[in-house]
Automatic annotation (TrEMBL):
InterPro entries: ERG24_DHCR-like, Sterol_reductase_CS
Principal location: endoplasmic reticulum
Protein localization: Endoplasmic reticulum membrane
Protein name: 7-dehydrocholesterol reductase
Length: 475
């Protein structure tokens, strides 16, 4: 699933020739080197308006009971001014700043100072020191995979506080939601600026840096592929996984606690949102090693798109269903609730099995069975920036023989389930599935554009073997 995904990044012009079908020149696969006018316009639009979009959604829930149209109507009819809305918006507070600083510091300590021990006693879990994919420059980075451990420790402490220690209220996140948003923005912009400067002055690996000559594109998409401090602190892995995704389930729990405080009970819709999204979050951390070979790690450089997106966009817009249910408690009928649960589980099943098939195929170098049969394979080759020729195998069996990105289809089914749990009273909870549809289609096209540049004629053979991208017979 695409928990790691933020606002859809623009696709810049690549130097590799897709139309010729020839293999790309060494080092040309990965993030773009050149920026066309449309990409630049998209970058500037996102830099200007993505923070406003987040503010608008959260403000609408705080001041207009989650109505997306009411603020516009009030402004258009003169019943409110922008200054009035801004004046009612809670500012950043000392309490929120301390809370957020403690949260990020705690996650940094769990990430850097506590080597993973979960892989020693959890059968099937792969953690500890693991290798990532080959970078465009031919580098293979090592990672300390301990996200599941961090999630478990964090949530054990949360439940211990809620039932035994009582150091703070379980509604603390909801109660400081907007002040915390300002803190998250500060961190998002600070880390994005830092890695931009780092990429120019002291990159971790200069061979994996890309400079387009355009400041705005470099700032948004990043110039360093894997910015690091020391041996183990990898910015991309930390911010993609922590603190945003670890916080996701805590945020939902805080929303549920607020609903309990306000109404004396937690609705079945809130339970469904908590359970289905917790399954997804746990899946992410259980398969964190697999994540090292995904689009985010293998292709995206680290800039504002990931830095700010992971700090602000993900925790604030991926949790809109729980936020909505605090002020609009929805009790679903048993058939409705069961249907939402089954849809969410079906989406998760497709997503997980599809990714498991690809992971199994990679680990065994194709010497495995997919759906009880020897997998169909398309042999590919490509060149990295160091001039080395590499060979790959593309899977064309199982779910990967149905479409080229059937895991995205499962992701969308799960996303729809989260939204359907909120009923049909408001548009706001459905932002997630609308956004994910746009993002995953765009990501699909970005991925295929890069693969076409990376593999050349071999990619054409693969698309001939698997003609559809996400929906069989349609797209």
């Amino acid at each position: 699933m695409a928990a790691k995904s933020q606002p859809s990044a623009p696709k810049a012009k690549s130097l590799g020739s897709v139309g010729s079908g020839s293999a790309a020149a060494p080092g040309q696969w990965g993030r773009a080197w050149e920026v066309d006018w449309f990409s630049l316009a998209s970058v500037i639009f996102l830099l200007l308006f993505a923070p406003f979009i987040v503010y608008y959604f959260i403000m609408a829930c705080d001041q207009y009971s989650c109505s997306l149209t009411a603020p516009v109507v009030d402004l258009a009819t003169g019943q409110a001014r922008l200054s009035d809305i801004w004046a009612k918006t809670p500012p950043m507070t000392k309490t929120a700043a301390q809370l957020y600083a403690a949260w990020v510091t705690f996650q940094v300590l769990l990430y850097t100072l506590l080597p993973d021990f979960c892989h020693k006693f959890l059968p099937g879990y792969v953690g500890g020191v693991q290798e990532g994919a080959v970078t465009p420059a031919g580098v293979i980075n090592k990672y300390q995979v301990n996200g599941l451990q961090a999630w478990l420790i964090t949530h054990l402490l949360w439940f211990a506080n809620s039932h035994l220690l009582f150091w703070f209220s379980p509604t603390i996140i909801f109660d400081n939601w907007i002040p915390l948003m300002w803190c998250a923005n500060i961190l998002g912009y600070a880390v994005s600026t830092f890695v931009m400067v780092k990429g120019y002055l002291f990159p971790t690996d200069a061979r994996d840096c890309k400079f387009t000559g355009n400041f705005f594109y470099n700032y948004m998409m990043g110039v360093e592929f894997n910015p690091r401090i020391g041996k183990w602190f990898d910015f991309k892995l930390f911010f993609n996984g922590r603190p945003g995704i670890v916080a996701w389930t805590l945020i939902n729990l805080s929303f549920a606690a607020k609903q309990q405080q306000l109404y004396g009970h937690v609705t079945n819709s809130m339970v469904l949102v908590n359970v289905l999204q917790a399954i997804y979050v746990l899946d992410f951390f259980w398969n964190e090693t697999w994540y090292l070979k995904t689009f985010d790690i293998c292709h995206d450089h680290f800039g504002w798109y990931l830095g700010w997106g992971d700090c602000v966009w993900l925790p604030y817009l991926y949790t809109l269903q729980g936020l909505y249910l605090v002020s609009h408690p929805v009790h679903l009928s048993t058939p409705h609730a069961l249907g939402v649960l089954l849809l969410g589980l079906l989406g998760y099943y497709i997503f997980r099995v599809a990714n498991h098939q690809k992971d199994l195929f990679r680990r065994t170098d194709g010497r495995c069975l997919i759906w009880g049969r020897k997998p169909q394979v398309v042999e590919c080759s490509y060149m990295s920036a160091d001039g080395q020729k590499h060979h790959s195998k593309l899977l064309a069996s199982g779910f990967w023989g149905v479409t080229r990105h059937f895991n995205y289809t499962g992701d969308l089914l799960g996303s729809l389930a989260y939204c359907l749990a909120c009923g049909g009273g408001h548009l706001l909870p459905y932002f997630y599935v609308i956004y994910m549809s746009i993002l995953l289609v765009h990501r699909c096209l970005r991925d295929e554009h890069r693969c076409a540049n990376k593999y050349g004629r071999d990619w054409e053979r693969y698309t001939a073997a698997v003609p559809y991208r996400m929906l069989p017979g349609i797209f």
